[in-house]
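Researcher: I'm preparing a figure for a lab meeting and need a structural model of a single chain. I don't have an experimental structure, so a prediction will have to do for now. The sequence is pasted below. Please return the structure as tokens so I can convert it later.
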Amino acid sequence: QVQLVESGGGLVQTGGSLRLSCVASGRSFRTSAMGWFRQAPGKDREFVASISWGGGRTYYHDSVKGRFTISRDNAKNTVYLQMNSLKPEDTAVYYCAAETAGTPALSIYEYDYWGQGTQVTVSS
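Model: Understood. Here is the structure written out token by token.
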């Protein structure tokens, strides 16, 4: 079992930055790949970024490459999403997820546990 709690969302102007955090409880975190997803109103949940259990492999959606950075601190059971140069189209609820097989997948269906989400709003 893995429980996930996100924080760090908020309201920011275009071009601003936010850092999301996701704290995990449960022994499976350190062997789990982790992902960030987002869901805007009326749209499907979409992949944003993922990271392998050891942090050596990362993947990003094309729309966030060069602006967002995913990282993790296994000693703190925490995964981060640093978001820079934010745009209004980044507005969404952001979710972190754990994939206990350890493979940093891009599909929502590969993930076993989800947090409750944190709202990110970027004003124009």
